[in-house]
Amino acid sequence: MCDFLIKLFNFVKFSSIYYRNKFFIRLILKINIMIICWFSCGATSAVACHLALKEYGDKAQIYYCETGGEHEDNKRFLSDCEKWYGKKINILRNPKYKDHFDVLEKRGYSHFGASCTLELKKKMRYKLEDEHPDFEGQIFGFDISETKRAQRFKEQYPNSKPIFPLIEKSLSKSECLGILQKAGIEIPKMYKLGYNNNNCIGCVKGGIGYFNKIRKDFPEHFKKMSEVEEKRNFACLKDHNGKQLFLKDLDPNRGKDVVEIMPECGLFCELEFFG
Q1: What mean pLDDT is predicted for residues 248-252?
Q2: Structurally, how many domains does the chain consist of?
Q3: The pTM is what?
Q4: pLDDT digit string, tens, across residues 69-81
Q5: Which one of 114, 133, 176, 198 has the minimum C-beta count within 10 Å?
């Protein structure tokens, strides 16, 4: 049957029938239909992509949206994962912006969704979806603790055809870290520094404890974000009374960075899915 289909395709691909019906023929023969796997340089997405490769083989193609604001160790982690996968990770980047600071300076920020996520990640996803309209599904690294958020994402973006392998296998973030360790892959530097995500350094989704830790670990990034706040007249933080809290006014002793939870930055703004 397979030989027959190949001969049929070879016969029609040079004919006018092919050019009039190439989309239909491609669907029949499953040509160029793929699974899009999103890698974020975080532990959960790394394991989710690995599971996808085991499940879908060559149909699984891995993509990473580079923002320019990541820790330099991400290049090492990405390279290690490529060796683990035995497959290249395709890097996407929005050429309009240098990094997340550049986006925020030009477009500002809303507490209902970060413009940096839109410009540096969501638009890259939309572009890829447009280039491959017949994709079969997309792999996202939601872990078992994020089941409700995954459901809300699925309801809001049904055309993204999301697949959540970690939830299907009931895997947590800590278990993903263990899987990486067992595979001999050193975890990203940001985790080692005590952060529970591997977002851009100085992520607008962070809270009081997070930014005071950034102040200590990456003072130049803290200073840059403070300057962006002043320039755009917006604050990343809100005080207990709901008023904007600018970084220049932040008490260095406030917040507990070890217990503060913030989401891994993905291809949408996770602020949409809290509650």
Answers
A1: 95
A2: 1
A3: 0.81
A4: 999 999 999 999 9
A5: 133
